[in-house]
Amino acid sequence: MNIAFDAKRAFQNTTGLGHYSRTLITSLAEGFPQHQYYLAAPKLTSLYDHSALPNVHDLTPSGVAKFFPSAWRSKTVVKDLKKLNIDLYHGLSAEVPVDIPQSGVRSVVTIHDLIFERYPHQYGKIDLEIYRRKSKFACNNADRIIAISEQTREDIIRYYAIRADKIDVCYQSCNEMYQQKVSDATRQQVRQKYNLPAKFFLSVGSVIERKNLLIVCKALQLLHKDGKADVPLVVIGSGGRYYAKVKAYIEEQQLEHLVIFLDENKAIANDPGYKSSADFPAIYQQATALIYPSIFEGFGIPILEALWSGLPVITSNQSCMTETGGDAAVYVNPQSADEMADAMVRVSSEEVLRQSMIEKGFKHALQFTPGQCAEKVMEVYNKVMS
Question: Where in the chain is the domain with CATH 3.40.50.2000?
Answer without folding.
Answer: 2-173+369-385, 176-367
